[in-house]
Task: inverse folding
């Protein structure tokens, strides 16, 4: 081997710590982009394919009870491919011996073997349920600690319980796909319904279109025709939902999240490239003397260039060897996590060629780009300058100006500040002054380090702000559900009666009866634009505090008037208070006036409010209701749960037919949990950025220490013990960390707005009010200081270990 | 904060001594093998002495200095500085703290910290070893800078003052904690004559205050201003009597003499050389004095000359090959210490060192002339 290539080999091997630092700098960027690009590819491909593989319904119709005849009508309708009818009923269930009730949506099928729409995928045990048997969707296992063969206790409307045997676990990626807030599912045979005191009738139809499964307009048209046809047959359609065969209902949301992750991945590549540039430039600085010698003995510029170019390539290849396999595994893990959370399946582990190529490209190109400038300048240096040792000096070293030496403005400023304080009798310890001024000696390096740490910090803080923003928005649901417990009955009861009984229960302060119904919002041509629930509290109810964006709230004397959530602006962008809309209510087409538009979390679809006074009248339920809101004397979650149990027991004991009781905050919990998953994705990225930042700081501090060994020797020579030397290095790291924190405070503001906008547009389809929290700032301050200490501790220890003879022996 | 100091030396050590080196061996090993840089050095430097250490490049003088400052470890031997054994029972970190309190170091390249002003550089050691009140430190640092004439430059960064001024600031820093020992490694090596002179004057001032100054230098004009000049050659210290008596000798010859020299002590009045007796040694006076005596016609002794520390005798006889031409006797009230070199070794080295031969030749010639006159008097008397 030629001597110069042997030198390259030695450079790689001799300083292992430096080699590792460079390799990891490259690897972290390659790994991140590999994880994100791979996950992006896997999810965007598998989500649609695996969704379609289960033959999802294009049209889901929620109907009043219907039978096989009506199903035949549906099957025979024009444009319908397959149609299946099911009954979906919500039950409270519990494990045998447990006191904890869990809400399940029980789906009853006529024949499991003829299942052609919304296919059930076997996971464990049987795939069909016979009489008095039940299959559980695998998500139910998150809430129930049961296994195949166990009995599951179902609570019936009359308060009695029935046990069904769990015979299998299945996965249903279609039925609840559009709603990751929905309760988990269980599946029974139609003939089991009587056991659960339910009629052997259907209430949902799942329909696929014969053709045009990817054409949403065609699907809506088929759905509209079906609705008309069914209503002509006297069946009320409560709600319709349309979706394309290959498009997972949450696809847009997931793609938006992946888009953010991809943007962050690209950012990480930038950050890691600044890290690489820093490290390579320091390496070249250390090697300038070698370069001088190489040139002195006849080495040409090209030869020097090729040596260091090869060295960089060697770093890059080592990094790729580490990062590419890890990136592949990481990509699949991230994709699995997302798939698991959003209830869809992946097609199996595989190498994603695009991600692989991106990793190779990033892994090779970024180090070349980052290292090119230092390598070129290094190869061009003159022998004299290279050997003079005056090459690794400070960037703010005094320079000649007009024949006199001048210090940089920054040094002058720092000196001036010290003097101003000193003049007032305030003296800083000199070791701290060393740390402070050392911070600004390599300004280029400092800038790159600050860039990485600040970006990491700003993203980190922004993620926390976005989390609070999302929760704040979700929390606004509370404005619409101020009750502590909701009690739903199977039949209507008089308001006065329920109130009188309810107030007997200890802790109950108020009982209020609400009505609800559902409507379809129609386009002018009569087709369905959107389904909407209409909640009907008493107009003067204190249990709703709407967040109005336009118009007013409902009034007692409102007739055919409603306040509607912002989701109505999607089909009707110009909708404003005073406008009228066509709706279908109880099968009748009517024209109602919109009196107000309010903010709401629209994951469940559109919501409207109309006064109880009017809705009870048109539903012939004056002074009666199925649903009651109860206000307790305390409002915390545990108390609400306890009150829900207490009211449930009480009303059942009193002979009321209770369908379910639910605590007020439980729905919010589910919503918050699902948002937290989203926030976790973002946080993973933020932490990754922070790690890159911390690595950058470690690299910078190591390089600083390497370059300042002589000064550390001097400190030791004049009395600095290990702790003093370590403190000097650590303080410098902390100063850098603190500066980055201050910068991150400012940068986090636009980041928060941007991130919040992207996420809220993806999840809620509307920009939401941004909320800032001190938590992110406080955690990041703690974290960045901790990272600064961790990033500096190794270089500091190395600095303290240097013996003075080693560092002064060059003189 | 608990401060661990080096272990106090056992009472066998001399309380007058500031530095005592006992059998110091330093070996370095590298790929090419093991090199012994210091080969069993014994050295004592007393309090209040101004000592220069000289030696050729690679002779081991900086390593020797590193042993004294605690910057490097001896492979064997013991170093006692200011009464403390600095390599037994303390860590490198604790030694740094001890160093800050007990000795000041001045480097050839000044080694001021570039990011601190001169004033801050001088305050730094006080911060490290926590000496003087925090608020008192700026005042003391300013006093020291005033002492070295840098009060106007106190708030300047090192790079903005001349190299001479940087070295003066480095000296002020070395004195920051008022150490009893100042160690300087080529302190004037990078300076012009005028700056060098200023620095030596400062050192002389410190010595006058009772401090000990040890300085490595190449500059003969500086060695002449120190109390003692220690020469180190090939890792060994040259006998000071040899270096003082025969300064023209090459260091290797001095070392050769050092190795074969016999130490002898004569009581006052004791005859060292008797006239007309064969002389087989070359004598160099380390301590005390001798008298060269002839007898007059009345057989009365009269003193031809008196020789003291740093002078030699026996040269005439060895170079002329004859018997002693006069009596040489220990004079004064105290014993005289001499270093004796056997004839053959002396002649061997003289033959290899024409400069020394010439220098000694001149002295021999002068002594012979003096003797001829004196002897003539004695002959005429006869």
Result:
């Amino acid at each position: 081997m030629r001597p110069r290539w042997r030198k390259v080999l030695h450079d790689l091997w001799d300083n292992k710590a430096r080699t590792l630092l460079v390799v990891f700098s490259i690897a972290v960027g390659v790994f991140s982009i590999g994880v994100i690009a791979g996950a992006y590819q896997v999810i965007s491909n598998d989500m649609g394919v695996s969704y379609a593989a289960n033959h999802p319904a294009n049209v889901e119709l929620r109907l009043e009870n219907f039978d096989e005849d009506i199903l035949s009508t549906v099957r025979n309708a024009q444009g319908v491919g397959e149609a299946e009818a099911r009954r979906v009923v919500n039950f409270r269930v519990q494990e045998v011996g447990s006191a904890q009730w869990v809400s399940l949506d029980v789906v009853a099928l006529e024949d499991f073997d003829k299942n052609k729409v919304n296919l059930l995928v076997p996971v464990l045990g049987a795939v069909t349920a016979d009489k008095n048997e039940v299959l559980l969707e695998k998500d139910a296992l998150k809430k129930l600690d049961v296994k195949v063969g166990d009995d599951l206790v179902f609570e019936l409307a009359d308060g009695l319980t029935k046990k069904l045997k769990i015979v299998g676990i299945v996965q249903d990626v279609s039925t609840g796909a559009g709603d990751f807030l929905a309760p988990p599912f269980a599946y029974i045979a139609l003939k089991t319904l009587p056991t659960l005191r339910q009629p052997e009738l259907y209430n949902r139809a799942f329909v696929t279109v014969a053709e045009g499964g990817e054409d949403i307009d065609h699907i809506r048209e088929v759905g509209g025709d079906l609705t008309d046809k069914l209503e002509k047959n006297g069946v009320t359609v409560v709600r319709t939902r349309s979706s394309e065969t290959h498009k997972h209902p949450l696809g847009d949301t997931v793609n938006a999240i992946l888009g953010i992750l991809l943007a962050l991945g690209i950012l990480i590549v930038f950050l890691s490239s600044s890290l690489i540039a820093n490290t390579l430039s320091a390496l070249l600085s250390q090697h300038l003397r070698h370069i001088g010698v190489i040139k002195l003995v006849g080495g040409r510029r090209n030869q020097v260039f090729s040596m260091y170019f090869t060295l960089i390539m060697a770093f890059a290849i080592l990094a790729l060897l580490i990062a590419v396999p890890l990136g592949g595994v990481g990509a699949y893990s991230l994709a699995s996590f997302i798939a698991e959370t959003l209830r869809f399946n992946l097609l199996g582990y595989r190498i994603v060629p695009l991600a692989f190529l991106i990793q190779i490209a990033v892994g090779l190109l970024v180090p070349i780009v980052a290292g090119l400038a230092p390598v070129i300048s290094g190869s061009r240096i003159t022998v004299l300058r290279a050997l003079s040792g005056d090459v690794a000096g400070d960037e703010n070293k005094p320079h000649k100006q007009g024949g006199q030496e001048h210090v940089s403005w920054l040094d002058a400023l720092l000196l001036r500040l010290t003097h101003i304080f000193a003049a007032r009798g305030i003296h800083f310890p000199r070791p701290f002054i060393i740390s402070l001024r050392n911070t600004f000696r390599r300004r280029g390096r400092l800038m790159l380090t600050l860039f990485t740490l600040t970006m990491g910090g700003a993203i980190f803080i922004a993620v926390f702000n976005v989390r609070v923003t999302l929760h704040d928005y979700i929390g606004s649901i509370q404005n619409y559900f101020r009750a502590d417990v909701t009690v739903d009955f199977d039949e209507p009861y008089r308001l006065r009666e329920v109130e009188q009984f309810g107030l007997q229960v200890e802790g109950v302060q108020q009982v209020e009866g609400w009505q609800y119904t559902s409507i379809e919002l129609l386009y002018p041509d009569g087709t369905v634009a959107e389904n909407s629930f209409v909640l009907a509290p008493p107009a003067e109810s204190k249990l709703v505090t709407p967040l109005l964006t336009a118009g007013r709230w409902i009034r007692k004397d409102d007739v055919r008037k409603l306040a509607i959530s912002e989701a109505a602006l999607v089909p009707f962008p110009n909708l404003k208070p005073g406008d009228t809309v066509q709706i279908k209510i109880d099968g009748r087409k009517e024209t109602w006036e919109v009196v107000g538009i309010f903010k709401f979390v629209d994951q469940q679809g559109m919501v409207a409010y109309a006064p109880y006074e009017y809705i009870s009248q048109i539903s012939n339920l004056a002074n009666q209701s199925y649903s009651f809101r109860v206000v307790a004397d305390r409002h915390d979650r545990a108390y609400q749960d306890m009150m829900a149990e207490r009211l449930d027991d009480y009303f059942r004991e009193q002979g009321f037919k209770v369908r379910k009781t639910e605590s007020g905050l439980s729905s919010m919990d589910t919503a918050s949990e699902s948002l937290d998953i989203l926030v976790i994705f973002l946080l993973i990225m933020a932490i990754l950025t922070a790690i890159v930042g911390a690595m950058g700081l470690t690299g910078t501090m190591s390089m600083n220490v390497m370059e300042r060994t002589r000064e550390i020797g001097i400190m030791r020579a004049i009395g600095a013990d290990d702790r003093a030397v370590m403190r000097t290095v650590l303080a410098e790291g902390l100063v850098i960390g603190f500066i980055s924190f201050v910068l991150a405070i400012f940068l986090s503001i636009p980041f928060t707005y941007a991130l919040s906008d992207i996420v809220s547009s993806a999840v809620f389809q509307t920009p939401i009010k941004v909320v800032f929290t001190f938590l992110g700032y406080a955690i990041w301050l703690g974290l960045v200081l901790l990272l600064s200490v961790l990033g500096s501790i190794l270089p500091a220890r190395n600095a303290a270990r240097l013996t003075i003879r080693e560092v002064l022996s060059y003189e | 904060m608990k401060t661990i100091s080096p272990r106090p030396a056992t009472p066998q050590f001399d309380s007058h001594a500031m530095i005592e080196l006992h059998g110091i061996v330093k070996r370095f090993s590298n790929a090419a093998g093991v090199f012994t840089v210091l080969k069993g050095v014994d050295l004592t430097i007393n309090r209040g002495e101004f000592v220069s250490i000289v030696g050729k490049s690679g002779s081991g003088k900086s390593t020797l200095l590193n042993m004294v400052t605690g910057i490097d470890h001896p492979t064997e031997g013991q170093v006692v500085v200011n009464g403390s054994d600095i390599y037994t029972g303390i860590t490198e970190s604790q030694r740094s703290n001890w160093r800050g309190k007990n000795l000041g170091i001045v480097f050839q390249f000044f080694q001021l910290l570039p990011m601190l002003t001169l004033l801050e550089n001088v305050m730094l050691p006080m911060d490290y070893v926590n000496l003087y009140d925090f608020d008192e430190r700026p005042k003391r640092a300013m006093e020291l800078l005033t002492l070295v004439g840098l009060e106007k430059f106190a708030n300047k960064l090192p790079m903005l003052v001349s190299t001479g001024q940087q070295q003066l600031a480095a000296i002020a820093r070395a004195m920051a904690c008022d150490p009893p020992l100042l160690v300087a490694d080529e302190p004037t090596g990078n300076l012009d004559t005028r700056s060098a002179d200023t620095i030596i004057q400062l050192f002389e001032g410190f010595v006058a205050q009772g401090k000990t100054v040890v300085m490595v230098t190449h500059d003969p004009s500086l060695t002449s201003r120190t109390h003692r000049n220690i020469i180190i050659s090939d890792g060994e210290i040259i006998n000071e009597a040899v270096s003082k008596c025969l300064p023209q000798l090459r260091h290797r010859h001095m070392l050769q003499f050092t190795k074969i020299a016999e130490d002898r002590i004569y009581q006052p009045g004791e005859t060292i050389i008797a006239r007309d007796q064969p002389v087989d040694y070359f004598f160099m006076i380390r301590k005390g004095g001798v008298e060269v005596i002839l007898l007059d016609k009345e057989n009365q002794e009269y003193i031809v000359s008196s020789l003291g520390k740093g002078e030699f005798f026996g040269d005439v006889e060895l170079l002329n090959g004859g018997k002693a031409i006069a009596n040489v006797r220990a004079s004064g009230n105290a014993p005289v210490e001499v270093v004796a070199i056997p004839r053959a070794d002396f002649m061997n080295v003289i033959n290899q060192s024409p400069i020394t031969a010439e220098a000694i030749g001149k002295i021999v010639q002068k002594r012979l002339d003096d003797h001829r006159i004196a002897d003539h008097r004695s002959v005429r008397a006869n």
Q: What stands out?
A: The two ends of chain B are 84 Å apart (CA to CA). The mean pLDDT of chain B is 85. Residues 66 and 72 of chain B are 5 Å apart (CA to CA). The domain at 254-381 of chain B is CATH 2.60.120.10 (Jelly Rolls).
